[in-house]
Design goal:
The structure is a single chain. With 153 residues, the chain is α+β, with helices and mostly antiparallel strands. Helix content is 35%, strand content 36%. It has four helices and six strands; from the N terminus they run ααββαββαββ. The longest helix has 23 residues. The protein is globular and about 50 Å long.
Length: 153
């Protein structure tokens, strides 16, 4: 099942209310990457740069929605996704509107994710995320997410 960006945005806003306050938008999803955007105007700090909390939230949400959409497009039933661990590195200030690009696992890691999820109903996935503005990549995050099938009672 494919989702339009409007469907994805509705899903995001329904499940992550903070995304509404941050005015997060979905720029793209191609099955392997998702790109979320956020305006600096409502995500800045006292220095006029992007607020670190907004940056880390956008990064974490981009990984979450990438895995949620991937699960919805590849499996029947309901799934949950939650970040289990994240390492974030702030390289330089973000000075303009910004975006987070989450890259899903690929190759052997994706094959293992599919196998484990199919057999056990739960798995862990590592997602690489870059946060950038018009001046380039400013932040990187590597996050591990738990993915599990919701029991049908």
């Amino acid at each position: 099942m494919k989702y339009s960006t409007d469907d994805m945005k509705d899903f995001l806003y329904q499940h992550i209310p903070l995304a509404v306050a941050m005015q997060v938008d979905i720029e793209s999803y191609d099955g392997a990457h998702v790109v979320l955007t956020a305006p600096l105007a409502c995500n800045h700090n006292d220095k006029g740069t992007a607020f670190a909390g907004s940056i880390s939230s956008l990064a974490t949400v981009s990984g979450w929605i990438a895995l949620m959409l991937w699960a919805k497009n590849h499996y029947e039933g309901e799934f949950q996704v939650a970040v289990a661990h994240a390492d974030i590195h702030y390289k330089k200030p973000i000075l303009t509107d910004f975006k987070a690009r989450a890259s899903l696992p690929h190759g052997d890691a994706l094959a293992q994710l599919k196998k484990t999820l199919s057999h056990k109903g739960r798995a862990r996935a590592q997602v690489h995320i870059e946060v950038l503005d018009e001046h380039g990549v400013a932040v990187t995050q590597v996050a591990e997410y738990a993915v599990w099938r919701v029991s049908q009672s």
